[in-house]
Amino acid sequence: MANQKKNAQFNIISNKSTTHGTYYTGTLNISNLSSILLTGEQAKIDLGLIHAKSAVERGIKFTPHQDEVPDGEDYWVVWVAVDRNESGPFYAGVAACPMRINKEKRIGWKNLPFHVNRMDDALKRRIRVDELGKQEKAVLRDFLVNHNEEMWKNSPDELKVKLS
Question: What are the strands, taking DSSP E only, across 17-160?
């Protein structure tokens, strides 16, 4: 037991802590991150997505193989990071990633590394929504506008163009 090496882990933390143990590596501040679940014509905030515990994910066994879930329902997880500048709050980073779930068979597909990378993109204030279809872009745009019109107005033009 004395010879066992302690593994460094990747930890998601809030604003309350700045270190993991005695070092700063492997931490991620998600205080300004939200998650939106897109399904067809509906969008809703679901913070459970951040820890893979959203209502649609509970009780689902996930596989990394998309072909194992051919009859599932398609969902989009959209990571949204918010920030504030002299004009006020705005949607600073928005990144989408797909997920498919067959509720009846209790199996789902998602590419977990891709989800993590897209979460990182949002936190780094990047706009990554190119994979969304026209309908999904319209639903997301309408949701963001209706959720907080001031934040939408203050958001970068890149987001507005990509969701138009």
Answer: 27-29, 33-39, 42-45, 61-63, 73-85, 88-102, 107-109, 127-128
Query: What is the per-residue DSSP string for 11-51?
Result: EEE-TT---BTTB-TTEEE-TTEEEEEEETTEEEE-GGGGG
CA distance 57 to 130: 24
SS3 161: helix
CA distance 31 to 15: 6
Tokens of 89: 């709050």
Residue 68 is encoded by which pair of tokens? Answer: 């194992």
The per-residue pLDDT for range 13-55, each reduced to its tens digit, is 444 444 445 544 555 556 688 999 999 889 999 988 888 888 8
Whole-number Å distance between alpha carbons of 59 and 78: 21
